[in-house]
Amino acid sequence: MQARMTNPAGLLPDTQKAINLLYKAAHSAGVPGTILELVHLRASQINGCSACVDSGARSAKKNGETDERLFAVAAWREATYFTDAERAALALAEAATRLADRSDPVPDDVWDAAAKHFPEQELAAIVLWVATTNFFNRLNATTRQPAPQHWG
Is the Cβ–Cβ distance between 117 and 84 less than 8 Å? Predict the structure, then answer.
């Protein structure tokens, strides 16, 4: 698959500045990096963004994530590899990504489970990071940005 155009975020200089600020804000609130990596990967899987799935899995692996856990992210409910906090963050990421799938997009039980594990500032960071991931996914899917080819 070939991209339809250069990634829009690269064409508009102020966009990259804003993205960098969102990234910095989400990653400086105290949420473990592994959780931010997992929610990014899961939202990207749901949205079918090959570029973000590829970069997310590679980034997670570079930061110490195991193959077993990465392979199981799509089936996190059934896998035994994830903590209760990670499960709560993944459920929140799924709900916030699939907004149109139900009349109450983020039900209280999903929110309450996440709030049990994360203080408000960290919840804000997770919500912001999931929204930013969905932003990336929509840019990439719309313009058909492919995952890079890796050889060897």
Answer: yes
Cβ contacts of 16 within 8 Å, gap of 6 or more? 9, 10
On whether the pTM is more than 0.85, the answer is: yes
Structure tokens at 64: 């110490």
Write the secondary structure of 101-146 as one string of H (helix), E (strand) and C (coil). Answer: HCCCCCCHHHHHHHHHHCCHHHHHHHHHHHHHHHHHHHHHHHCCCC
**How many angstroms separate the CA atoms of 90 and 96, rounded?**
10
**Cα gap 59→85, rounded to integer Å:** 20
Query: In the predicted model, what is the mean pLDDT of residues 96-103?
Result: 96
C-alpha–C-alpha distance, residues 97 and 94, integer Å: 5
Please name the residues in contact with 121: beta carbons below 8 A apart, sequence gap of 6 or more. Answer: 29, 30
- Domains of the chain and any CATH numbers: 22-142 (1.20.1290.10)
* pLDDT per residue as tens digits for the range 30-77: 999 999 999 999 999 999 999 999 999 999 999 999 999 999 999 999
